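User: Show me a protein chain along with its predicted structure.
Assistant: Here is one chain, sequence first, then structure tokens.
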Amino acid sequence: MRKQHAGTDSDESVIDMTPMLDIVFIMLIFFIVTTSFVKESGITVSRPSADTATEDKKGNIMVAIKPNGEIWVDKRAVDVRSLRANIEKLRAESPESGVVIQADTDARTGILVQVMDQIRLAGIVNISIAASPGA
């Protein structure tokens, strides 16, 4: 003898969402891990223009030099003497990264040379100077 109940939940099918949620979270973790984060300098400078300027996707550490000689790294003003330690710290976070120097057109070349020297002493040889394309 079989008993039939009109209002039981045993006949309804239920969709298990757990595997789909697992896949979504795994994909989210994958995209977060593979994304390279750009360290911004924190200020806007008036870059010089160059006909041979090209875009470099590998530069992850941004250093900006203002016309008055202020140096900005990671949205903080730093002294030229502490620049090496800041670059070494940022390089430890992403060892494959290069440095892009955003020097204002009115910045002194002496400051630019000091910044490049400190970056090289920090162990980075891939240094680029930012310029706007066109003349």
